[in-house]
Amino acid sequence: MKPRGLTRDEKKVWDRIAPELSRLGRLRPHYVDFIEQYCVVKVRMDDLRSLLDEQDWSYATSGRHGIQHKSRPQVAQLNDDWRKWNSLVAQLGLSPATELRFNDKQAGLFDDDEFGAL
Question: What's 29's DSSP letter?
């Protein structure tokens, strides 16, 4: 089911995550595009983080208001990509908190759940 057109790094992410999603029953044909985007965003985040670590996350400018320290534009892109990735993680149940939702373990936390039988 691996989509064509993935880069080498995106394929590595796919190869890491797809078997686990398959084992959990979450790798279905109609989810492939969604999982592909997970791979794309994950690689882009890793690349941006590496770039920022090499170049520094901020820079200083000097102007009429003195020296100002500013974040590089890539920081905003990384933050945006992180929000996208975090949403994909939640949608796929890939975090400890969201995995509970997929395993249906949340429903029986309370023995006296009078609404459970509805």
Answer: G
**Which residues of the chain carry a pLDDT beneath 70?**
103-118
Which string of DSSP letters, residue by residue, matches 40-105?
HHHHHHHHHHHHHHHH-SEEEEEETTEEEEEE-HHHHHHHHHHHHHHHHHHHHT-SHHHHHHHHT-
pLDDT of res. 59: 93
* Predicted local distance difference test score (pLDDT) of residue 38: 96
State the DSSP H helix or E strand holding residue 59, giving kind and residue range, or none if neither: strand 58-63
Instruction: Decide: pTM greater than 0.85.
Output: no
Instruction: DSSP letter for 42, please.
Output: H
